[in-house]
Amino acid sequence: MSSLGPVTPQQMHFREPLPLRSGAVLADYTLAYETYGTLDADKGNAVLVCHALNASHHVAGLDERGQAGWWDNMVGPGKPLDTDRFFVIGVNNPGSCFGSTGPMHVNPATGRVYGADFPVVTVEDWVDAQARLVQRLGITQLAAVMGGSLGGMQALAWTLRHPTRVRHCIAVATAPNLSAQNIAFNEVARRAIVTDPDFHGGHFYAHGVVPKRGLRVARMIGHITYLSDDAMDVKFGRQLRAAELGYSTQDIEFQIESYLRHQGDKFSEYFDANTYLLITRALDYFDPAREHGGDLAKAFAVAREHKFLLVSFTTDWRFSPARSRELVKALVDNRIDVSYAEIDAPHGHDAFLLEDPRYLQVMRAYFANVLPAGTQEAARV
Amino acid sequence: MSSLGPVTPQQMHFREPLPLRSGAVLADYTLAYETYGTLDADKGNAVLVCHALNASHHVAGLDERGQAGWWDNMVGPGKPLDTDRFFVIGVNNPGSCFGSTGPMHVNPATGRVYGADFPVVTVEDWVDAQARLVQRLGITQLAAVMGGSLGGMQALAWTLRHPTRVRHCIAVATAPNLSAQNIAFNEVARRAIVTDPDFHGGHFYAHGVVPKRGLRVARMIGHITYLSDDAMDVKFGRQLRAAELGYSTQDIEFQIESYLRHQGDKFSEYFDANTYLLITRALDYFDPAREHGGDLAKAFAVAREHKFLLVSFTTDWRFSPARSRELVKALVDNRIDVSYAEIDAPHGHDAFLLEDPRYLQVMRAYFANVLPAGTQEAARV
Description:
The structure is a homodimer.
Chain A: E1 10-14, E2 18-19, E3 25-26, E4 29-36, E5 46-50, E6 75-76, E7 81-82, E8 87-91, H1 123-136, E9 142-148, H2 150-161, E10 166-172, H3 180-194, H4 212-226, H5 229-235, H6 255-270, H7 273-285, H8 296-299, E11 307-313, H9 321-333, E12 337-343, H10 357-370, H11 373-380
Parallel strand pairs in A: 5-8, 5-9, 6-7, 9-10, 10-11, 11-12
Antiparallel strand pairs in A: 1-4, 2-3, 4-8
Helix pairs in contact in A: 1-2, 3-4, 3-7, 4-6
């Protein structure tokens, strides 16, 4: 049970076109968002939470179906990101399938559903869209921007794209870019979707079908990379579903197979195939060092006034601690104020979403410094 | 260029049915095999080489298309497994698609192509089939049995199934069983194949199609697990195919995508989908400790007279050194004579097939002890 209770999603419409990195433009779009807590009179206590692949603006509290937000253990009254002190914003990114303008919506230029014609969006585009929403909420400068995994990339990009509009960056289980192996996993998932005959070149909506086979395979691959090898062995090991082996190539024999198929089936019921392509591509493209000749320290030279918290997890082989350490080095090279915690957690990449007392304590302690108690009381007077 | 030169594959037919672990029976089957070198008069210099997923009886030398065998750097005159001294046998396993009886052949019981009706085969079944071939060649006891990856599992199984018929076991880059993560990757690959509409429940031959989409995805997943993260970064990194980003979710942007798609395309042209299911299942099922309550040392108690060489590679995350060390421990617990080499190689699981001087030297040195020079000269007199 969430201590925030029911929350109501909101929508904000933007008529001003959003220029995208690709050169295309997103015209006339809507962002879905939620807020938790109260904005101080000086508007200095706002924290933006950015979401990863399979998540949305519903960060905390209970939605209309009674489902807790994806970071409900992190955000709420008395929680590490304490909504009794902070005004927290969750926003769904354009291209997603959870409320903001995305591929299943109508393209105003053609009157047809976007489908595969939805423009390619990047982490930087998302951050620009988020910045407009934050501005409309009347917030000149965020106390912090925060995210895990792909959300962490957005938090990093905020300090580079809008350095004067945020003070603290909290990036968890993330990386300065994807490795070849990361891209490889994304590409296999995309090929599974795109080669599903029900994909119809991305215009499956018109055919009344969904490329579920591809989505299932994509999600199964994803799940393997979210968990550590050890966590999988502890949770499933070589447990059989039945008492005896059935000797079948197609039936389920091992519990891990049952788990993966279940995850794939669930996902294929609600996730949009074009969104999957768009979001994995945004991951592939993120690479702030690229326009600085590969020099990550140069990329972060603009972020000298910020304070950073980076967190990684020892068993995360998707975005390993080594990748976070690359970021720490680039920040330290700029004499930027950075705290770094490497949490000894068994759960792999998924750890950033899970209960881990040491992890949550690191986050709690950091947020206590983002807005020292005295500051806020003064502002409220 | 192979120093063995052209080799001719042979076939051996078996009328005696092969009882399988599943309870089914393989009737009236043929094994494709090759041999290299000369069998000594006392038939004491025979080495059996077992193949892994995507390989065959064509271990060394040049086939009719001029293609070198898959372990040609290991097997040949003057090579670590020296065909001037040893008589080497490569045999294709039943269920494969490279010459031995498999799913694309006619089921004598029905007169129809086996397809999905080909019985599920296990590592133990393969070893039993190999043992019959070895017997027919007049070899009472193999000097050694040798394999990498799934081939290593067969080498291990020989010492358990036919302990009196082999002296040395050389198992490279292998494991005592698959981890949950290993099974998970196999399962995703199988789902990609089975859910391809062209699979037709495994009877696609009758429809004149091949589930190429599924095979491509399966092979792409496989390739990710064969290479180390670092090796992929060194070989491909984030290299773009074109000079600039194209901003596309479906076109190739990164070289790693191009490589994987190419590997998938090639594989789907020649590999049989039912064979892929059968071989990955054989991997899943292998677990010699299972019938000993999970006690691997108990499983190997029968192998007390053997000598073992185990080799692993530091960057192999598919069958990591830790898995080989489990085997070493089980052998040592039985006071079995075991040599173990952990090779510091960058290439991941693929390393067992590659040129690595330290690795090849370990193999060469071990084979010098399998058949000490004096022994053989005496036998030849």
